[in-house]
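[step 3/7] fold_predict: job queued, chain A
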Amino acid sequence: MLVTGSWDKTIKYWDLRQANPVASVSCQERVYSLDVVNTLLVVATADRYINVVNLNDPAKFYKTIQSPLKWQTRVVTCFNDGSGFAVGSVEGRCAIQYVEDKDSSANFSFKCHRAQQTGVGNSNNTNVFSVNAISFHPQHGTFSTAGSDGTFHFWDKDAKHRLKGYPEVGGPITATDFSRQGNIFAYSVSYDWSKGYSANTPQLANKVMLHAVTGDECKPRPKTGGRK
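[step 4/7] structure written:
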């Protein structure tokens, strides 16, 4: 079964042996991102709606919330165990959100993909970049964020700790994923359409890169009670 989401404000379920969808569900607004793990489907739309679907009952929303982040949602990605999801927005923030209300005390958000401006008179100014991609490590449950600043970072959500950050790669990072074994982290470097079609030129990078995950890069850290 395949699930698609569209700017026509619907999600559709497809049996690839058939030409037409087997079911369609209307959303509040245009679909910007979705992800599925086990029986959890999360659908993020315009106007910051996030719809949670239990795929045991796929024709209706299990619950709907407003994104805990104040600006437009760019990406949602489910935890490996299906207990919650991460949200990334255009304001350089990421949120960790659990599905069930009983776990809400573990919800939190943090700033990322921001850079202090340099030069005279800019000491209090910060450049803020969109969080374009979030991926969870298949073995450790830690996760990556990648953004329009051209950097990616590994994080431990349980310890609320950044594990490691990496320098700018020559253009916005628009998509990421780990290999099944978790030993390779793939990311795409390409135009993110943040300035419309007129800013898309042949000179911009357009490539897929592979990063070898080694040592303790993605291994969770002991909880310290704080976030770094």
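[step 5/7] annotate
The radius of gyration is 18 Å.
The CA atoms of residues 7 and 30 lie 4 Å apart.
exit 0
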